[in-house]
Amino acid sequence: MERRGSRELIPELFDTILKLRTREDCAAFFADLCTEKEVENMAERLAAARMLLEGKTYLQVIEAVDISSATLSRVSRCVRNGTGYTRMLAPEPEEE
Length: 96
Known about the structure:
- This protein has helices at about 5-20, 25-35, 35-55, 60-65, 70-80, 85-90.
- By secondary structure, it is mostly helical.
- It has one domain (about 10-90): Trp Operon Repressor, Chain A (Orthogonal Bundle), CATH 1.10.1270.
- Helix 3 (about 35-55) crosses helix 5 (about 70-80).
- The longest helix is centred in the middle third of the chain and has 18 residues, at about 35-55.
- The radius of gyration is 16 Å and the shape is globular.
- The mean pLDDT is about 90.
């Protein structure tokens, strides 16, 4: 069997994540895939991104979320220049 590099495995990871249908599926999958701390770190980044999109300051985010200023800076760059956070965390349009 030919050995594949890490980058070649990423699409398979994404395809697997797309198969998750419930919060319970997600919890079980990520509990098996990641350490508890890794999942907590992802949740903190998501919370920080949401707060930045709401217009909160770095200080407000750091006070509310256990996140380092270096990590917050990276999240901020992704919020400003990326597409994932803004697309996934955008407010739902209100129904008329």
